[in-house]
């Protein structure tokens, strides 16, 4: 492994530790916010008043900064898959802090994730040498990547405008899909900004190029969208479900986007490419094994402490008529009567 890849690897490890912790801290903050008002899954923003949620945000920001710097030194196909380690951190902390039990098979899943990460690290490609943000811009406007960007935006708009209002609270792939697709564009923009900063610190000022600011605005916009829908996913689904699925989709889309834009696999042998893909598949196996052995959140019943109200149900069926039901409240402890009349004559 080259020295630059090693630096990126170490920074990615630090990033995973902080980001994995932030999932749990933010989840606790969202739980507290749900007690005092509408939850984030239905559009509530009470979590913004929860100090614990902000601690989780600060933790995530530190992790993202470390991740940001890692992209300066190593290709996305190395840094992004190492995010699996954040799932391990998240799973272990959830076991102790959120009482989401980690089974023995889940522990095996953690070990498989580590194995897959090791394979990817050993076969990671070298970082492309870039001397200006203008070179990165040329990579971003090449037809193949423009086609990917256009498709990503179209799918995201469909998920946000059509799927989220209808299926967001029942299908985890809606919120996570938005986060993952937008996240791949975030990584490409963040990597471009990171390289621009690195070149600036080395003496080649990139601040005055408009491309630097375009990448910055794209990154900020995408990050805001990611945070919003990630909060919805965390508030609506078990952390053990959100983390692995988010990792799998986000990593897949990011590797695809990076391969198209930065041509990460150009010049690599078939053996190295196959090894990296095997490593990624190994990590996916570990994450889904970890997910599959975790217990889901118990369903929340809003009427759990409301008084029981006895009801009487009347069923009627007339000729060529479908079943109809009418419920009426009756005084407590009265006998519940069910009267069924098969036909009217």
From TrEMBL:
Keyword field contains Ion transport: yes
Signal peptide: none
UniProt GO molecular function: magnesium ion transmembrane transporter activity
UniProt subcellular location: Cell membrane; Early endosome
Keywords: Cell membrane, Endosome, Ion transport, Magnesium, Membrane, Transmembrane, Transmembrane helix, Transport
Membrane topology designation: Multi-pass membrane protein
InterPro entries for the chain: EmrE-like, Mg_trans_NIPA
A Pfam family the protein falls into: Mg_trans_NIPA
GO biological process: magnesium ion transport
Entry's transmembrane regions: 6-25, 45-66, 72-98, 105-125, 145-165, 172-197, 209-229, 241-262, 268-290
GO cellular component: early endosome; membrane; plasma membrane
Primary localization class, coarse: membrane
Coiled-coil stretches noted in the UniProt entry, renumbered to this chain: none
Keyword Plastid: no
Physiological role: Acts as a Mg(2+) transporter. Can also transport other divalent cations such as Fe(2+), Sr(2+), Ba(2+), Mn(2+) and Co(2+) but to a much less extent than Mg(2+).
PANTHER family found in the cross-reference section: MAGNESIUM TRANSPORTER-RELATED (PTHR12570:SF93), PTHR12570
Assembly and oligomerization: Homodimer.
Family label: Belongs to the NIPA (TC 2.A.7) family.
Protein name as it appears in the record: Probable magnesium transporter
Organism for this UniProt entry: Medicago truncatula (Barrel medic)
